[in-house]
Amino acid sequence: MALPKAFWLLWTGQTLNRIGLLAPAFLVLYLEQGDITDASTTPVIVGLFAFGVLAGGLVGGVVADMAGARRTIILAQPVAVLTALLFIGMADIYLIGLLSLAAGVLSTVDRPAGAGLIAKLVPQEQFARAYSMYLVGFNIGMALGPVLAGFLLAIYPPALFISWLVSSLLYAVLVWPLSVDETKPTGTRGSTTGVRRFTSGLVEPFRSPVLLVFLSLTSLLACIYLQINSALPLDMHDEGMTTSEIGIVLAINAVLSVALLPLVPRIVKGMRDEVPLVMAAALIALGFGMNAFAHEMSVFIVALVVWTLGEVLWAPMSATFLAKRAPEGRTSTYQGAFFFAWNVAFTVGGPVGITVANAFGYDVLWISTFVLGIIVSFGLVLMGRMPGFNAPAAEPAVPAEPSVETTTEAPRPRDSGKWTPAERE
């Protein structure tokens, strides 16, 4: 079954948005190139951006389920435009800090909303396939974004923010015509009720023992994987590789991800929910562990291929795992909890990895990541045996393909409460 046109509008919008999105590395380069920050203030700016990333996914998921996933994506884009405009010519370090915090939030606030919107646009049995393709677009955007940013920074630095502004506007324009039911459930009006729902939504996924185990293991696995942003390039450099060679190696990851992600739903078809996750964790553990034996470019590439296989299994199947277990109208909230768990490792895993490498050497670090990854794999096996692990059965009915007309339809009657292709907010 072909994916609907509405999905491809969302796909195109988020891909363009990722290409133009402001990346923290290039924000730092822009600020230091203009002598706006120094050695004492740059870490603070980076820290504020990282805190925004951490909060954006968690908060964005809850907001998307309360206000509507489509509305959340659309309303975030004018805020991004305003933030980009304020960055241009800004020299006040305190305001730059606030803008960096906002930029971090805006870089992740749409991701759980996107997953929630996919859950409305395709049948449940198509979610893994659709989300895999969604991640292909994400990876294309993240691969092309640094190339564009580097070019813009060289010819006209403020163009970084103009690019972000334009990509945000295009994202809003493409998502605007998507037709989904965003009727709020009865009895949710009023500030007190809204605050209570928001607070409850933040912690709801963590109340399930199965999901708490899954999210905890997710953070541990992310601590391994996110060494690609810290210890791994440093180790490659210490082994004598040039920055160009390091870039080529890491680019192979992006190319493989784009090529392999569409194949994942076929590979895992018929498997129990935890099996692809166990396989993914084991491959990531093995791949990063192999770095202990890497002293030249070719071995680093072999190791990268192994952990990339784990990555392309983990990304869509972890999202599918949560989507199957999210109550009606809570898909974005549960995806937001995942992004929070993953991004916690972004603030912890990198610094810890570099600390271990500096104290004991890179071989010890990579062997440690292997051991930790195997522990995560066994943890996922045990999770599959926990009471309440199995997701509710999906509804067999498949509705007509969603249209791409502006959303004006009346509220639809509620069903049994199970997650269906026409899931409502």
Walkthrough of the structure:
The protein is mainly α and 425 residues long. It is 72% helix and 0% strand. The protein has helices at 5-20, 24-33, 42-67, 69-87, 93-108, 110-121, 127-155, 159-175, 191-203, 209-225, 231-238, 243-260, 264-268, 274-290, 297-325, 331-360, 362-383. α6 packs across α16 and α10 (209-225) runs antiparallel to α17 (362-383). It is globular. The two termini are 25 Å apart. 46% of the residues are buried.
Secondary structure tally: strands:
0
Q: Count the helices. How many?
A: 17
Uncertain segments are 185-191, 394-425
Mean pLDDT: 86
Helix/strand class: mainly alpha
List the helices and strands and how they pair.
Blueprint: H1 5-20, H2 24-33, H3 42-67, H4 69-87, H5 93-108, H6 110-121, H7 127-155, H8 159-175, H9 191-203, H10 209-225, H11 231-238, H12 243-260, H13 264-268, H14 274-290, H15 297-325, H16 331-360, H17 362-383
Brief summary of the model shown:
This protein has 425 residues and is mainly α. It is 72% helix and 0% strand.
